[in-house]
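User: hey, got a sec? need 4Fe-4S ferredoxin folded
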Amino acid sequence: MSRKPESDGQGFSALRRRFLAGVATAGGAAATAHATGAWGGQTLQDAMGGLLQDHYQRMTKDEIHAALERIERNAKRRFGVEVHCEDTPPLPNTVFGYALNISKCKGYRDCVQACVQENNLGRDSQMQYIRVLQMPNGTMDLEAAEHYYDPKEVPVPGHWYLPMQCMQCDNPPCVKACPTKATWKEPDGIVVVDYDWCIGCRYCMTACPYWARHFNWTEPQIPAAELNPNTNFLGNRPRPRGVVEKCHFCTQRTRKGRQPACQEACPTGARIFGNLLDPTSEIRWVLEHKNVFRLKEELGTEPKFWYFSDERVSPA
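Assistant: Yep! Here you go:
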């Protein structure tokens, strides 16, 4: 797999490297040693997070290994928990896709809670990658939908439920909007984020028509006892304040042949996840035999997230 990004982000990445090189030079010996006085017992790299490392797609195997060790050390320092971080490559001959049976979804939001726990989302901010909309039957006005209904009172008669998350678009507008190329589409179709290169400009949030990207206004707070220690560099590793994050199809699970946390947690079996290139997969059967639709398809984003109904009727 090539790690070379498509461009250098309008020269920003080169400027960033020159600036940070100056910072490291100014640090002198403290930049390469455990300077207990200046950096609290950390190396400069640890103290500054990933600011001194190259873009993920340009990093060598040794640099990736060093970055993973840094993430694990910082997580241990921050949470007091041993965290294992991996750089799991895309599976060969695999493009992931999702299908959701809206006639089975009852709005329980078990998928939301499973995602929060699996992907180390900040509990204080109540950040959630998955948004479940409650709408009256016969309508599909996403802007007027109820986002904050009580999940203990569902299903509400006369209403239906529409879960939304990152659509992992084949033509992702968020990628085009990013000035630093901190986000891109992987060979398995997952749109990922290099959190160390995100500058928090939020252009990607503006570009996304599905409300799928979320900004960390504060340092995400996660109780140590609830931290998921099995993490991935491009997935659920602990994120810092000031970056944008999103659903990544649980890279720490799906690239090892497992299902996403949301799919496993769904009590009604509404969620179907799989390899779009596998003609024997369940998702391929759904796409070939069900009346499927995609949200805002007219925008040309080519989402890899479909909806269907056993009742063979559209909610619109």
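Quick note: The chain has a mean pLDDT of 88. Let me know if you need anything else on 4Fe-4S ferredoxin.
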